[in-house]
TrEMBL record:
Annotated Gene3D superfamilies: Naphthalene 1,2-dioxygenase Alpha Subunit, Chain A, domain 1, Rieske [2Fe-2S] iron-sulphur domain
Lineage: Bacteria, Bacillati, Actinomycetota, Actinomycetes, Pseudonocardiales
Organism name: Prauserella muralis
Protein name in the entry: p-cumate dioxygenase
Keywords: 2Fe-2S, Dioxygenase, Iron, Iron-sulfur, Metal-binding, NAD, Oxidoreductase, Plasmid
InterPro entries, sorted: ARHD_Rieske_2Fe_2S, Rieske_2Fe-2S, Rieske_2Fe-2S_sf, Ring_hydroxy_dOase_asu_C_dom, Rng_hydr_dOase-A
Length: 430
């Protein structure tokens, strides 16, 4: 069966339906979805150009002139807090003169951004504020030559998103029930959350959608991360319950696995890894959350892990710590992953240290989990090249109420992916 290895020229219609096959108790994805360059081209146009994409967190640009530079949906952007408006601005990182990037550092603070090529200068609100020998250009529309803003920018609970499609639905509508899980993360911090300084960035030689699946896959943990579980058991942690919980579709392609934490959480579930001295502080944190939100919600905050997908490529893992992770394809078999650590403001130093230790031990680039997952995804991509098998099976749990170690949450992603790839009413984005 040949699908898109040799696609027709022009628009590929019905791509999603041709690659995702669904029956009452069977769900399959054709491997061309992970290996065809033509599919990747259509994903850029149909998915990344028309959905809300995560840019960064407001805490990264707290002061006027603070900025961060990002690749978002394959495009260079930068986010800066305006010196006059104090608002979050997101601009295309391209000089309106001849196109060179104007923000050339990953982060910092600046009153102006000057293009190094011809010295056109822009302020933090995007206004063109300086042009050498301006008179030589005649009567140009200088107001119209400011930095180009991204079509739509919005923030939810400090998480900043943008979209290249001006007609996209409002962000809160788009987030659907994913808002409830973002609220759980933010509400656990009375003074709000902040991104800690420092970024993990690495490449994986695999298709980007494999990391979507992996990030909300509950049942690979015991086999793939066997060393970590043995490490916890050696410290006295009871992990006999495994990954016990549910998988949920949250609407619009968003999904979550929500399960009782088999290990400790800095907010606020003690485990032997934290040491006996940590018990008092963790009990205090638990009591504060109970007072603010009641016993049931506090128990959900403290004792449950959440692996959350915000479609298409934002993962928030509220587990041993809170990691915020995005990933963008640079080729059909290559992605760049960027990850940050999110933590409560004004956190006590010993709690912050436990959080960082937990993050690095499991989720860090040299931790127990990340190298395992990289190896697993690259192994899948290598296996696809063998041929002989056309379809991946993602049917687990279709014959029963979905648990966290089933695949209902992955099917939620793939259904939205199929719908996006089938649309034929999209105009190209500038």
């Amino acid at each position: 069966m040949t699908l898109l290895n040799d696609p027709p020229s022009g628009l590929i219609t019905g791509t999603g339906s041709r690659l995702v096959a669904e029956e009452p108790e069977r769900f399959r994805v054709h491997r061309d979805a992970m290996t065809s360059p033509a599919v990747l081209t259509e994903e850029q146009r149909r998915i990344f150009d028309h959905n809300w994409l995560y840019v960064g967190h407001e805490s990264e640009i707290e002061n006027p002139g603070d900025y961060v530079r990002r690749q978002v949906g394959g495009r260079p952007l930068f986010m800066v807090r305006g010196a006059k408006s104090n608002q979050v601005n997101v601009f295309h990182n391209s000089c309106t003169h001849r196109g060179a990037v104007v923000c050339r550092r990953d982060q910092g603070n600046a009153k102006v951004f000057q293009c190094f090529y011809h010295a056109w200068t822009f302020d933090s609100e995007g206004k063109l504020s300086g042009v050498p020998d301006r008179e030589a250009y005649g009567n140009l529309d200088w107001e119209g030559l400011g930095l180009k803003r991204v079509a739509r920018v919005a923030s939810y609970r400090g998480f900043v998103f943008c979209c290249y499609d001006p007609d996209v639905v409002e962000l809160e509508t788009y987030l659907a029930d994913a808002k409830d899980y973002l609220d759980l993360v933010v509400d656990a911090a009375p003074a709000g959350m902040e991104i800690l300084r420092g970024t993990n960035e690495y490449g994986i030689d695999a298709n980007w959608k494999l990391l979507v699946e992996n990030s909300i896959d509950g049942y690979h943990a015991v086999s793939t991360h066997d060393t970590y579980f043995k490490y916890l058991v050696a410290l006295g942690t009871d992990v006999s319950g495994g990954v016990d919980g549910v998988g949920r579709s949250l609407g619009n392609g968003h999904a979550v696995i929500d399960y009782r934490a088999p290990w400790g959480r800095p907010i606020a579930k003690w485990e032997p890894l934290f040491g006996d001295a940590a018990r008092v502080e963790i009990d205090r944190l638990r009591a504060e959350l109970t007072e603010r939100f009641g016993e049931a919600r506090a128990r959900w905050m403290c004792e449950h892990n959440r692996n959350l997908l915000v479609y298409p490529n934002l993962i928030i893992n509220d587990i041993q710590a809170v990691t915020v992770r995005t990933f963008m394809p640079v080729a059909v078999d290559r992605m760049i992953v960027t990850a940050w650590e999110l933590a409560p403001r004004n956190e006590e130093p010993d709690v912050r240290q436990r959080r960082l230790d937990s993050f690095l031990t499991f989720l860090g680039p040299g931790g127990f989990a990340t190298p395992d997952d990289v190896e697993a995804l690259e192994s899948c991509q290598q296996g696809f090249a063998s041929g002989g098998v056309e379809w991946n099976d993602i049917s687990r749990g279709m014959a029963r109420p979905p648990a966290a170690n089933d695949e209902a949450q992955m099917r939620a992603f793939w259904r939205r992916w199929r719908d996006d790839m089938d649309r034929d009413d999209l105009r190209s984005m500038p």
